[in-house]
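Page 47, continued from p. 46.
Same chain as before, 112 aa.
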Amino acid sequence: QVQVVESGGGLVQPGGSLRLSCAASGSMFSINTMGWYRQAPGKQREWVARITSGGSTNYADSVKGRFTISRDNAKNTVFLQMNSLKPEDTAVYYCKGDSFAWGQGTQVTVSS
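Result:
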């Protein structure tokens, strides 16, 4: 499997925004459903959002209305726009598709 590379994390105050990116290589990206996941300290990894090859999206209840997933198949990249961030959104964020191995993730810290 080919690995993905996540980026865009950082430290943000509650109520702030961040945009995460996930870059994949290879020709399989456009046919993969891609998902964002997160893992907070001491907790199991949880699913956050997914986008199909056709652009249909689904969200976990905890982020619905605040996060938006999108993709650019020409650039083999999937995005996660995160608005109205809360301290409980603090986690390492990962993206994943069936044809891709887990990446290193990107740290998001929401704190004042």
